[in-house]
Amino acid sequence: MRIRRYKPSDLPTLYEIDQACFPPGISYSKSEISRFISHRGSRTWVAEDGEETVGFLIAGRAAKDVGHIVTIDVLAGWRRRGVGRELMDAVEAWAVEQGLRMLYLETAEDNLAAQRFYRRRNYSKIDEIKRYYSDGKAAWVMAKMIRNAS
Fold this sequence. Notes:
It is a single chain. The protein is an alpha+beta fold. The protein is about 30% helix and about 35% strand. The protein has 4 helices and 7 strands. A 7-stranded mixed β-sheet has the order 1-2-3-4-5-7-6, sandwiched between helices. Strand 4 (about 65-75), helix 3 and strand 5 (about 100-110) form a beta-alpha-beta unit.
């Protein structure tokens, strides 16, 4: 498996992966994914095994020294095989390079597997957003300090 930078021809595949990973109302439209990817200051990593795209992660700056992980998607058959870990390693290395002091993300209140995964990476729950998702579910904001603020 390898992690590489996004290229525009990836968009249809990333959209399909997002649709497979998340239910309607949580998954993004193709135009939303495109907008996140093309936003100034954003970065997208793609995980591949041979010719198969098996996951991706989109992140960007939310503020001068804060990064936001918009989404991390890994196909079901590839979970618990290191893909998410590799994608998170890539975004956290980017955060260090960018001089960010913190990364944060949102995860569904009932996505306990994701919460455990992030906790193992030293992310902590810092806020709950009621009715975050279109189905009425709340989300936890989880964050990790990257370096000491200067």
